[in-house]
Amino acid sequence: MRLTQGAFSFLPDLTDQQITRQVQYCIDNGWAVNIEFTDDPHPRNSYWELWGQPMFDVRDAAGVMFELNECRKAHKGQHYIRVSAFDSTHTWESLRLSFITDRPADEPGFTLERQEVEGRSIRYTTRAYAANRPEGARY
Amino acid sequence: MNAIDKTTATETPRSRYSAGVMEYRKMGYWEPDYEPKDTDVIALFRVTPQDGVDPIEASAAVAGESSTATWTVVWTDRLTAHDKYRAKCYRVDPVPNAPGQWFAYIAYDLDLFENGSIANLSASIIGNVFGFKPLKALRLEDMRLPVAYVKTFDGPATGIVVERERLDKFGRPLLGATVKPKLGLSGRNYGRVVYEALKGGLDFTKDDENINSQPFMHWRDRFLYCMEAVNKAQAQTGEIKGTYLNVTAATMEDMYERAEFAKSLGSSIVMIDLIIGYTAIQSMAKWARRNDMILHLHRAGHSTYTRQKNHGVSFRVITKWMRLAGVDHIHAGTVVGKLEGDPHTTRGYYDLCREDFVPQNLAHGIFFDQPWASTRKLMPVASGGIHAGQMHQLIDLLGEDVVLQFGGGTIGHPMGIQAGATANRVALECMILARNEGRDIVHEGPEILQQAARHCLPLKQALETWKDVTFNYTSTDTPDFVPQATAAE
């Protein structure tokens, strides 16, 4: 399967040139760009691991791309990596853009567990196949 | 300014309150020198007096009938601080290019309204007055809601920012589709449409306004099958999905029962129709806040009173009331789709949903500065007769904080529902990518779509199927201040 979280997952994987343009768009809007990675792709996993802090003071996408490449050296192939942008504007103060830049070569996906309860109701649990293995050894 | 008579009669208390009938303008409802206070509610009415009725007298009557007056003088007024409670018409302008119509500005003291109650606000402002015989027609065009009143409402249960955080979707419009045919599917068949559309790439599917609990499908069956579809699609894609379960019903008790069942099944969103009424809407908004639920509002019925320019209530007023009342989604027009929507007027509605401060903009039909004082943002929904080939226009006109709903444009795809959903999602993502790269999507849009279609067969088929289908009719509800073509462009 292909994990479709993030703004651009239905497009072919973005090239570094395309990523750079999106990052520069975020910077030009005054947003702080952030890199995160995880090997727990559950849709409700809000907190991917931070690769450093959001880059509040970086004004050139090249700086972000340098950090992205450092993150890739450490985690590519074993983790999903995403780029996000935080907007500190009053009444927003949250993310403005988030997209996956790198994903494991093989994405086994999720199983849906159903627990039949009262009436015809069912309690659903989504579980990543990879999550059966310990963190760091999943992909 | 107009050349009409601005004088007001000064009356001594004794003559003002002698028994009998008196012109409204002489009873204190016309005060051309009045300076509205920051805390006043201001209403702007389009007044069409009957032939021979003076526009100022007609406007003063609107002020009177929407506040303290009745048709005759009553001595009991003098037991009250009547100067405070009388609404004051302070300005009457002729409507540009509309002989016989007048814009009346009326200020209301804050004490006239109950805190946090749209029912109370509307009972005054659009109560008896709309049937008043000396008027041919009356339309509530806009209202300035003072911060002091705005702050007595909870506002949207969730709001755009928190909705995005919950759904983990940022930087692009959300994508939805209304299940079609809207009537007749069994619960099992209905859930099939939901599953296919969500798996194919949509974020949401939606019940239509009139799908409640009919002979062909009991509401519980719909909810059960829909949640199977949502959860299965979520597991297939690793992405959060939802479906607006319409809990509209005959009584509040029924609606609460349906909403509780939706919650127990793990739904993230429920839906109501505008026709349930303002009080029911506010009750459901409070329920939604208590239960971490997003609340979708379908504006069923609004066109009966919003569409014609001379009589009724403008949708911009309804939008303001609904942001106060606390819904999270509101259908606000597509411009290019099948339903009424002048581009400038629609832009005004979108601003009222999403901005924290909306400045006066007559060309967009916004007559007053409107501060929202950090009231959560209301997600506008564009639905009705739109398709993937219009993606560049939709993003250009409506921005990214919007739900784009392609019903026929998903389910009517020649290769099936999943393909239709994928076509829309790819069209959306490629257009956002291009926009962020600084490309001129309005002009390059069709080329950007064609380029994306090279790696996406469903998009190629969608573009071929619907080509440049558009609903190009003249709008009826248009701004009064800028002459322009009003056909959707």
From TrEMBL, chain A:
Residue ranges of the TM segments: none
Coiled-coil residue windows: none
Record keyword Nucleotide-binding present: no
A GO molecular-function annotation: ribulose-bisphosphate carboxylase activity
One Pfam family in the UniProt entry: RuBisCO_small
Gene3D superfamilies membership: Ribulose bisphosphate carboxylase, small subunit (3.30.190.10)
Keyword annotations from UniProtKB, A to Z: Calvin cycle, Carbon dioxide fixation, Lyase
Summary of subunit composition and partner proteins: Heterohexadecamer of 8 large and 8 small subunits.
HAMAP family: RuBisCO_S_bact
Listed name of the protein: Ribulose bisphosphate carboxylase small subunit
Protein source organism: Ancylobacter tetraedralis
Gene that encodes the chain: cbbS
UniProtKB/TrEMBL annotation, chain B:
Site positions per UniProt: Transition state stabilizer: K338
Domain Ribulose bisphosphate carboxylase large subunit ferrodoxin-like N-terminal stretches: 29-149
Keyword Metal-binding: yes
Pfam families in the cross-refs: RuBisCO_large, RuBisCO_large_N
SUPFAM superfamilies reported for this sequence: RuBisCo, C-terminal domain, RuBisCO, large subunit, small (N-terminal) domain
PROSITE patterns to which the protein is assigned, alphabetical: RUBISCO_LARGE
Modification type N6-carboxylysine: residues: K206
Top-rank lineage group of the source organism: Bacteria
Cofactor(s) annotated in UniProt: Mg(2+)
Comment on bound cofactor: Binds 1 Mg(2+) ion per subunit.
Catalytic activity from the UniProt record: 2 (2R)-3-phosphoglycerate + 2 H(+) = D-ribulose 1,5-bisphosphate + CO2 + H2O; D-ribulose 1,5-bisphosphate + O2 = 2-phosphoglycolate + (2R)-3-phosphoglycerate + 2 H(+)
Domain Ribulose bisphosphate carboxylase large subunit C-terminal positions: 159-466
Binding site for Mg(2+): K206, D208, E209
EC number: 4.1.1.39
Binding-site residues, substrate: N128, T178, K182, R299, H331, S383
Keywords linked to the UniProt accession: Calvin cycle, Carbon dioxide fixation, Lyase, Magnesium, Metal-binding, Monooxygenase, Oxidoreductase
Any one of the GO BP annotations: reductive pentose-phosphate cycle
A GO MF term: magnesium ion binding
Active site: K180, H298
Function: RuBisCO catalyzes two reactions: the carboxylation of D-ribulose 1,5-bisphosphate, the primary event in carbon dioxide fixation, as well as the oxidative fragmentation of the pentose substrate. Both reactions occur simultaneously and in competition at the same active site.
The family this protein is said to belong to: Belongs to the RuBisCO large chain family. Type I subfamily.
Note: The basic functional RuBisCO is composed of a large chain homodimer in a 'head-to-tail' conformation. In form I RuBisCO this homodimer is arranged in a barrel-like tetramer with the small subunits forming a tetrameric 'cap' on each end of the 'barrel'.
Assembly mode: Heterohexadecamer of 8 large chains and 8 small chains.
Protein name: Ribulose bisphosphate carboxylase large chain
Species annotation: Ancylobacter tetraedralis
